[in-house]
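Today's session is about reading a structure prediction critically. Students often jump straight to the picture, but the first step is always the sequence itself: look for stretches that repeat, for charged clusters, for runs of hydrophobic residues. Only then move on to the predicted structure, which in these notes is written as discrete structure tokens rather than atom positions. Here is the chain we will use throughout the hour.
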Amino acid sequence: MPSGDDEVRAAKLDQLRKAVEAYEAGEGPTLFDHAAEEAKAEVRNRALRLLDQRARSREELNSRLTALEFEPRVIAEVLDDLESARLIDDREFAREWVRQRHQRRGKSARVLDRELSQKGVSATVRAEALEQIDAADEEAMARQLAAKKARSIKTAPADRTERDKQLRRIVGVLARRGFPEGMALRVAREALKERLQELEL
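Below is the predicted structure for this chain, in token form.
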């Protein structure tokens, strides 16, 4: 003999089955809002096209979709769906952003933190992602960039003025990537010294 729970479940399934049949037949009332589903489909398609271009934070997608004048409530529902499907994930997005832009573009933790903040990533998630970069990583990257810039010097400076000019160019490369001023100056001096020693050989 069926239990009370079985009867309730059977009733819910029957209600859902009838609702689906009514929806497919274009009849109402139903459990589905056809207009709402169409609105979500349009927003979802636009969001997926944006994600096809590159990974994005939730706030980036929200800003882009809002600029297209979709209804905020529908945008929120679609973004919730995409998060549930793991198509947007701010933690994964931040980790990859830090890893790639530090390794490939030589950006400092300070600059990466600012970039992620501009993309609406929370402070907690940013901090977790930036744990990939420690002080040794920062300095190693700064040295690599400074050495590369120093190699562009083909002749030893004729005087102190020319030497200072070359030093400023190396420091500038590091400063634009957000490395701390003290580190940038120290690493630039070392890279310039090493390059000038090479030119004397």
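Discussion point for the tutorial: The chain has three domains: 4-84, 90-130, 135-200.
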